[in-house]
Every structure is written in C-alpha cells, then in structure tokens.
Amino acid sequence: MSTTLQKTTFYFCIVLSLLASCGKEKKPDYHPMSVGAQWEYSGTMRFGSGEVVNVKSVGYIAEKEMLQGKEYFKLITTYEGAAGTPPQTVSYLRKTEEGIYLIAAEHKDQPELLSTPLPIKTGRTWELASYDPTVKGTYSVEGKETVYVTGGEKYEDCFKIFLQQEKDGTRGERLDYIAPNVGMVKQLVTFGDISLEVNLKRYTPGSN
What we know:
By secondary structure, this protein is mostly beta strands.
C-alpha cells in the first residue's frame, strides 16, 4: 500500500492547486478566498490493474488564524474513496500581491512556502515549493480555455495550469483549470499507472 500512498499523494495535493493556483485580480478573482467558502469535488481514479475508484473531496475555509505574526485562512479538506490517503488535511494560506503563501498544519513551526507567485498570466512558470525535498516539479500557465465539468456546467476564461512533477523516480503530470470567481473547477492527473479526473460539483461563496 506504500506505493499507492505515494502515487495518490500527487492527486491529493488538490488543496495546493485549489489555493495556490489563483490570481490577485480584483475583477475577476481567480481564487475568492474568504471564511465560509466551500468547494465540493467528485471524480474517478483509475489504476493500471483496471480498478476504478470513485473519489470525493471537500475544501472548507473555516476561519482566520494568526501564525508567526501573520494572518492566514485555515483550509480544512476532507477526502473519501482513495486508499492510502488521509481522511483530512489542514493548510494555512495567505494571499499578497507577490503570491500565495502556504503553511501545512504539520509544519506550523517552519517558514511559509511561496506556493504561487502572482499575478497568474499565460506563459508564467515557477518551481513547485514543497516541504519534502524529494519532490520536484514545475508549473506553467498554458493559456485560457472554456471548460465543461461533469453535469454540463460551463466555465469560461479558465486558466489552464500544467504541473510536471517527480518523486522518488516516479513522474506525474497534472492539469488544473481555474475559473474566475470560483477557483479550481477541473483537475486531470496521471502519476505512474494511476489516472484521475476530478470535477467541481458545487461552490459556495464565503463572506469576508
């Protein structure tokens, strides 16, 4: 199961893609970060063995919290369906003009990571920031597209963000589609012999 855990971890960086791949624009806002905001996702994970697993995740910004003298949004994300993944993760995010900064709950005594430099724009690239030194990756913004999610809902002007990642010799790729005033609406992943598609089911805005 350790191999499964290693591979599924790439998908369940969904928290990072949800909160890292966003813009600072006033209009539109490619990540509306506010207390009470919630994103519900569902998808299908396929293994090389032929096994197919339905997965779900819910990200919820519960509150603001002070860490290391700075104010962060506390994001709680729950997961269902994929073996080897934690039932819940907690992350702390803050957005500035320079970028999105992250502290994972299990690393609260360590410096924050710059997960995404801002502003997001076509052609921009940056290196994946991680607490795990064995994880390496590069993001690139490939442009904008119109995206349809499961159920037929349409999102226009979505940024298409490509991540190429490697961990312990296993390579993976991920595409995140980020919609204005919503956040991530679709994610496509391949990692080793695992593939995944996740779509937004419901977005509930929060309040500032």
